[in-house]
Amino acid sequence: MSRTSAGRRDREGPAGPLDVRLAVEIDAAGGCPLQNRDLDSVKQSLTRSEFDGEEICQVAINNDETCHYQRTPVDAACPCAIVEGHDCIANLESVRDGTLVYSLVIPERATLRAIIEDLREADATVSLEQIRSGVDDGPDATVGVTLTEKQREALAVAIGAGYYEEPREASLDDLADELGITPSGVSQRLNAIERKLVRERGRAIDALAD
């Protein structure tokens, strides 16, 4: 974990855990055994070679017709290594046309921000597909919502830039510059996301009351 993310954690305190699903495009990750694949199920782990200590990616791929077990040296831009280098519980769920879909349990918002920032520094494209507060179904849990691609992009940028931190670390203008749209457009997308969260939270509370 970077010193920057650790410092933010000390300053902000816990705000989780968070149940998160991230989609990470890996077109630029040379040598990745999952590149250009489309898999509903994949088993993956990182380990170190007993001979030279080199980090190795181990992948078990099961298709309808074939089964592969591959060992590949970890590239510096490997998304799996970046994710697992942070304080989180990570599971590689599937691969969609070369895009890795991760299910993560993260202790706090600062960790999520650090993961997104480090992935982007490695030139990966990151989409936040789902974020839920809490890992149970109690009254304090927030159910997941379905977001459009543009909404997922806006939310990922907002979290990565610190827009939802206290005090706020980015403005609508900052987000607009990164997304390439107007501040009004950013505001509309974030407001739409927040409305979805409120509606789904209301449904969850009603369901618990029945």
Please give a handful of descriptors for the protein shown:
four-stranded antiparallel sheet; 6 helices; alpha+beta; 26% strand; Arc Repressor Mutant, subunit A; Alpha-Beta Plaits; elongated; three-stranded antiparallel sheet; 7 strands; disordered N terminus; 2 domains; 210 residues
Molecular structure report:
The chain has 210 residues and is α+β, with helices and mostly antiparallel strands. It folds into two domains: 1-38 and 75-135, 2-Layer Sandwich (Alpha-Beta Plaits), CATH 3.30.70; 136-210, Arc Repressor Mutant, subunit A (Orthogonal Bundle), CATH 1.10.10.10. It contains six helices and seven strands; from the N terminus they run αββββαββαβααα. It has helices spanning 3-12, 79-84, 109-121, 149-161, 172-179, 183-209; strands spanning 18-25, 42-48, 55-62, 67-73, 89-96, 99-106, 125-133. The strands form two sheets. A four-stranded antiparallel sheet has the order 5-6-1-7. A three-stranded antiparallel sheet has the order 2-3-4, with no helix packed on it. Helix 4 (149-161) packs across helix 5 and helix 4 crosses helix 6.
**Percentage of β-strand residues:** 25-35%
Quickly give the structural class.
alpha+beta
**What is the number of independent domains?**
2
Shape: elongated
SSE pattern, N- to C-terminal: HEEEEHEEHEHHH
